Amino acid sequence: MHHIILITKIMALLSMCLAPLSNLLAEETITTHNQTKATQIKKNQASQNQAVILMYHHFGVDRHPSTNIRLEQFEAHLDHLSQAGYQIWPLAKVADYIRKKQPFPARIVAITIDDAYLSVYTEAYPRLLKKSWPFTVFVATDGVDRRYPSYMTWQQMREMQNNGVTFANHSASHDYLIRKKPGENDQQWEGRITSDIQRAQKRLKIKLGRAPKLFAYPYGEYNTALANIVNKMGYIAFGQHSGPAGINDDTRALPRFPMAEKFAGLNDFKLKINSLALFIEKQTPWEPSVDHNNNPPKLLIKLASQKDIKLDQLTCFVSGQGRVAVKWLNGQKTQFSVQATAPLPTGRSRYNCTVPSSENGRFYWYSHLWILLPTKTPPTGPSPIKKSPAQI
Ligand SMILES: [Zn+2]
């Protein structure tokens, strides 16, 4: 829902201040004698601090509207990427540039798909193969090993791999990894998570012969402890919070734009693939976990660079709550804070901030994930086993 509100607001803002977005974007690809437009094109071709990583799940599977993309929407995305001159890079190449903090050429997009559902093979793969575009599928290997009918088979994946598709780690279990099991201490939790991720990597290697060190958090859920485990194991990791992946971003949780039918219309899509990474020197906290003592959480952002940013138009939204005030903390406008007005609900929430750049139609885009875990309900009725407070 927050995406819809956000996009509606952005579109309203654009229609007030600028020419219609579609015209602007179409103009970018046309050579013109107009000086302003020539400058615009030059800027768009200059080296960039970000690439955009798209994330899909199901293709043409109507019964999963929150994670599905309709086929005509997907085809429109691919056609636009071709027509507007985007280059589709393998995810590993994008990750490598970010690790080395190496600037990207303009218009770089990577395509990722989570969970290895069957419609990847039947719908996405033939369409992407026709374009000879690379993409990466994050596989939760237990589902494939158990031969669930909604998943692809290893055989189908081998066929795809032979045609340039990459398969990477999405854990074996697809559990909510940050959630401890009842009675589990930190060490036991770390052991369980480590072996879950190792098991997936081993299955990929056995069944496909290779597995890159790329990891996508199931449900996009991570906290500092999990991110540090994944990082220590040598993975570059990806979340599901929106935004372009910037060369200054933390490789423990790079953002991706989730593409589901509700907010994958072509205008939204153009805004997202054209977005810019905010160069943030420090965000406090980085930790997404929220507890009842800090709900709603306050986010402090220290910006590293203000070049090309129309800071007076910085706008932030809270998922489910709409727009919230931005509080500037110094006169130079390098630090600001954002806080929701009401407590965040159980589960995942986001603070999303956008700010126009001096390039028409391009927005800096930043999203912060928050997770409030469900409160554990104390056991009801008499229990023969007395639990210690730590276990409840
Ligand atoms: Zn998943």
Principal-axis shape: globular
What bound compounds does this protein have?
Answer: zinc ion
The Rg value, from CA coordinates, equals: 22 Å
Q: How large is the share of residues in beta strands?
A: 15-25%
Count the DSSP helices: 11
Write the CATH fold name of the largest domain: TIM Barrel
Tally of distinct domains = 2
Q: Give the beta-strand count.
A: 21
Q: List unreliable stretches of 5+ residues.
A: 1-41, 378-392
Find the CATH superfamily of the largest domain. Glycoside hydrolase/deacetylase
The assigned structural class equals alpha/beta
Tell me the span between the first and last alpha carbons: 34 Å
What oligomeric state do the depicted chains represent?
single chain
Largest sheet, described in full? 7 strands, mixed
Can you give the helix content as a percent range? 25-40%
Mean pLDDT: 86
Notes on the structure:
This protein is an alpha/beta fold and 392 residues long. The chain folds into two domains: 136 residues, Immunoglobulin-like (Sandwich), CATH 2.60.40.1220; 229 residues, TIM Barrel, CATH 3.20.20.370. The chain has eleven helices and 21 strands. The strands form five sheets. Strands 1, 4, 5, 6, 7, 10 and 11 form a seven-stranded mixed sheet that branches. A hairpin with a 6-residue loop joins strand 20 and strand 21. The longest helix is centred in the middle third of the chain and has 23 residues. The protein is globular, with a radius of gyration of 22 Å. It starts with a helix and ends in a 20-residue tail after the last strand. Bound molecules: zinc ion.
